[in-house]
Amino acid sequence: MQTGMGRGRTGFLTEEEKADRPKITRAFLLRILSYLAPYWKQMLLVLLAILAATVLRLLPSILAGRIIDEGLIGRDLNALVFLIALSVGVTLLANLVGLLESYLNTWVSEQISFDMRNRMFRHLQGMSQRFFTANQQGDLITRMTSDIGGVQQTISGTFTGILSNVLTLVVAAAAMFRKNWILALVGLVIVPLFALPTRRAGKTRWTLTREAQESQDEINGILSETLSVSGQLLVKLFGREAHEEGRYEEANRRMVRLNIRQSMAGRWFRVVLNTFSSIGPMLVYLIGGFLMIRKGADLTVGDITVLVTLLGRMYGPMNSLLNMQVDWIRSMALFTRIFEYFDLPQEVRNAPDAVTPRTTRGELVYDQVDFAYEPQRQILKDVSFSLPAGRTVAIVGPSGAGKSTIIHLLLRLYDVSGGAIRLDGVDIRRLDLAYLRRNIGLVTQDTYLFNGTIRENLQYAAPEADDARLEEACRKANIHDFIVGLPQGYDTQVGNRGMKLSGGEKQRLSIARVLLKDPAIVVFDEATSSLDSIAESLIQQAVGPMLARRTSIVIAHRLSTVLAADEILVLQDGRVVQRGTHAELLAGGGLYARLYETQFGAAEETRPPAGQPEPQKNGRRPDERETG
Ligand code: ATP
To answer: How many domains does the chain have?
Structure first.
């Protein structure tokens, strides 16, 4: 987690920020179309509905001419009533068609964003750990919520808006030309003027929109950093409340300023537009009147009224279309951002010819494994060891030596950069990923529980397990008595990331989870934090059944664990510098002997002094006291 000033915004947005506008290519548009394609039938219906509604909405304007000429000037009451009734009927029909259109439209756009959201979620699930360590949660959430939410708006608003406005313009212009081409030209001559100030206003609004988006990302980042459990803890621990409040307030203020500027941008431009739009009709009256009065043209008052009304009906769509330039660019930017995410390669993925063996023995081989999280910085170098099925290897070494990394590679959170890891003789990169991970149980220092009940957390490992199985696992993991002692028992909420449980309880719960999963291989990253001897022994008792008969890799911090291992690897700077049993290594001196003095020796001191009750030693070897 990064907190405080100078928070680097990560990779994927920066590229987009640099580019002033999204590049719209044929391939890009085709790609958008590919999302719309499955719904082409419904979209065709939307199109027809828009067309019908557009024509129907313009009809009353055309009928107005006849109302004036035949009804009012011709003093024909029957015609007047009939034409008015017709107008009202047509308007009603237009609105009903409009209703159908908006239903279809919403349906289609919701389906498309539904598809997109699912696809994005699936894609992100497949991203490697590298991606999640490099990207801020806030950015990911924005991508999933507001960006994909924006797609729905784009399709139901922008796309159909453009379509319906263009149709209105075309139909109205056609009707005007049919009435009188000279007056139609007069009315439309001022149209190009509309386009004049748009470019600038569009650009300003686009820049503001982008800044607002960045600002929103920043706010989301701050929120997800500081309002998370670990973030809050950090803030409280270092007394940074005031600092975080200031940081949030500043981002919030920037957002408000941008929102106001964004909403005011182009207002003056609207003043110009409004003035233009009142000049048009005046010109039509003037020239129409001149033609009618002086030239005796075949024009009626009704005709001129129709032309003026139609012209009036055109300004709205014209205005919207010009404003839509920004919506359009914004939509394209939205798709660009979404596609960028879709295009991120899934680094660790199932091989096309992935195999799923029927049985698993659990024999592990690390064969000259090299690894680097980032180029230039080699973390593991030439790590080799073999672990026959059912055996235990303990890895010890100073902090940062690469112990956890060895485990990340086994789980394929990352792939090796050199060498290979083999399970039962098959390179794990050739194994089906789900198969591989199904066969590995993991208990780390950071115990991952989600916000739910104890039962739900347990069932995450074995959804089909009944209460009897859950209980059996919890008994073995030494946590059953604790659970039933809670007022809500197995239905107790564990809180965010299990915060309502103690470290030792969480560990035993996660051991129970591994027992439920019943994998062939267990990876156990022993807690470095010193628990009291009772908690310690409760865990030790639970570890016994977990490791029994399973191939195990243990990152060991306690003497008892090291003693129980078949082989000990001493890791330093990503290399295996020593290997052997405790006795051999101790006799050999070197790093292991030093670690023994500092780390394991200290662990010994936490044992209760003579005379006090000894913790139970199940799961430990009988010889451990003598050797330690
Ligand atoms: P500890 O006992 O303190 O947990 P470790 O032996 O498990 O340490 P690793 O977590 O494997 O050490 O880390 C080995 C090295 O890799 C460290 O120097 C660390 O800085 C680096 N490292 C770990 N994770 C990443 C990552 N996601 N990106 C870049 N470097 C990393």
So the answer is: 2
> What per-residue confidence (pLDDT) applies to 528?
62
Cα–ligand 1 centroid distance for 129 (angstroms): 13
With a 6 A CB cut-off, is 405 part of the ligand 1 pocket?
A: yes
Between the CA of 116 and the centroid of ligand 1 the distance, in Å, is: 35
Burial class (CB in 10 A: 0-12, 13-18, 19+), 466: exposed
Together in a domain, 306 and 401: no
Examine the domain organization and report whether 329 and 399 are in the same domain.
Answer: no
State pTM to two decimals: 0.72
pLDDT value at 607 more than 60: no
Do 546 and 373 contact (CB within 8 A), yes or no?
Answer: no
Pair 151, 109 in one domain: yes
Does any ligand 1 atom lie closer than 6 A to the CB of residue 400?
yes
Looking at residue 392, which CATH number applies to its domain? 3.40.50.300
The domain in which residue 620 lies consists of 364-439+519-624
The finding on whether 527 has its CB within 6 A of some atom of ligand 1 is no
pLDDT in tens, 176-210: 999 889 999 988 887 777 666 666 666 777 778 77
Average pLDDT, the chain: 83
CA of 402 to the centre of ligand 1 (A): 6
Contact 144, 341 (CB under 8 A): no
> How many angstroms does the Cα of residue 347 sit away from the middle of ligand 1?
19
The residue written with tokens 């828009």 in the block is 50
Q: Are residues 374 and 337 in the same domain?
A: no
Order of strands, sheet of 377-387, starting from the edge strand that comes earlier in the sequence: 377-387, 364-374, 418-423, 426-427
If you search the block for the tokens 């009012």, which residue do you land on?
A: 72
CATH of the domain at 57: 1.20.1560.10
What residue's CA is closest to ligand 1, atom 26?
Answer: 373
Arithmetic mean of pLDDT, 256-278: 79
Atom of ligand 1 nearest to the CA of 374: 29
